[in-house]
Amino acid sequence: MIGTTPHPPRSPPVPPTPGDGRAAANAAAVLRTVLSHGPLARSDIPQLCGLSPAAVSRQTTALLRAGLLCERPGPDHPPATTGPGTGTGTGTGTGSGTTPGPGRPRIPLDLHTGPLGGPLAAGLHIGVPASTFSLVDLRGRVLARRAFPHAGRSPGRLPAAIAAELGRFLQESKPAGRPLLGLGAALGGWVRPADGTVVRHDALGWHGLPLGAELSDRLGLPVSVDNHARAVAHAEILFGRPEARSSLLHLFIGNVVDAAFGIEGTVHQGPEAAAGDVAHLPVPGSRTPCACGRTGCLQASASDGVIGAEAVRRGIVPEPSVNLLVDAAATGDPRADRLLRERARTVGRAAALLLDVFNPAVMVVAELSSILHEGYLDEIRAAAGDQDRYGRRIVAPHAGPAVLPVASATVLLAPLFRDPSRLT
Question: Which of 36, 96, 217, 285 has most Cβ atoms within 10 angstroms of its Cβ?
Fold first, then answer.
C-alpha cells in the first residue's frame, strides 16, 4: 500500500451462509466494505476487508458488471468509457480517490445508488390494521412508501388484496430504468423464512399460509419473508450502529410483541425459525390478565391493541389507536402522556429481563412513542434499571419512523449482502 494515510477499522466479518464458496464470501466482503466505508478507492479495499488486491479486482469487476457497485467520479475524473476493462483498475489512492497519480485515475467506488440509478428492493410490512409498501436502495434509504389499510378484509382475501395494491404501488413509484431485485416481506408471528410460510399469526388469522409463494406468483418477483423483529435486527446490523454487528437485541412492541437476537452479524432463528416469541414474557409489576390464563404477560400488558383499548376506556381517544394516542400526547393531553409513560415503564421492565439474559452490545426498541419522542425512550431506559450498565445501550431504530419500510426491504437485501455472487 502506497502512503501512510490511516484507515478506519476493517469491516466486520461477513456472517457465513451455508453453501458459501470462496467467491461468494469474497464478493460479500467487498460489498460490505463499500457499504461501510464507501465511496473509496479500489486500493483501499484490500486493507479494509483483508483480501488480496487481485481478489478485490476480480470482485469489483463482477460487482460493477452486476450493477451493485458504480464509479463515483470527481469533477476532474470523468468515468472511463472505453474497453472491456472499464472499472477494473486497482488505483493507488486513499479513500477520497480524487488525487491524480500515475496510471488510471483513482476513481472511487460506491454502492450503485442515488442520482446515478442502481437497483432497488421492494418492501412489504404486514401489520394488523394496515400494510406498508416501500422502495429502498442498497443503502437502506427509502425512496417511496405507501400505507394500505386492510379495512376489515377477511384473512383469506387479504393476501390477494395486498398483492394487487402493492403491484399498483410498484408500477406508479418505481423510477424508470432502475431494476427491481425483488420483494422483502415482514410481519409478526411465527414465520419460517426457508419457504416463506407464515406458520402462525393469530391476530391476522393466518396459519400455515405460503405467503412467499402466493406473493411471488401474483407479482412475478422473487420474494423473501421473515418475522418483523428479525427483519429489524437485520436492518440494524446492515445499516445501523456499528456495535449492532457485534451483538444486538431487538424488542418489537406493536399489535404483536416479538424479539430477535443477533451475534457477529447473524440473527438467530432457532429450530423451525420459532425464536423470538416473547408474548408471554412475565413483566415484573404487571397484573394485567392475559388470554393464556396468567397475568402480567408482555403482550397483554404493552401491545398496541391493549394500550389503544385502555386509551378509549379512559376517554382519551375515540377509537383504539396508538397513533391517535401519540398525537394526543404531542398536542399536550396529560392523560395521553401519562398512559404512554406507563407503557414505556412496562416495556423497560421487560427489556431489563432480556438484557440480563443476553447482555448485548446494543438493544434496539421499536415502539412508536419512543421512536417519535426521546422522552418516552428515556422512560424505558430508566425502568430498565442500572443506567450505568444498560441505559446507554437502549436505543431507538436507526431509521426512526421508517424502521418498518427499511426492515421489510432488508429481508431481501440482507441475503444479497451475504452472497452477492447470486447476481454476478
Answer: 36
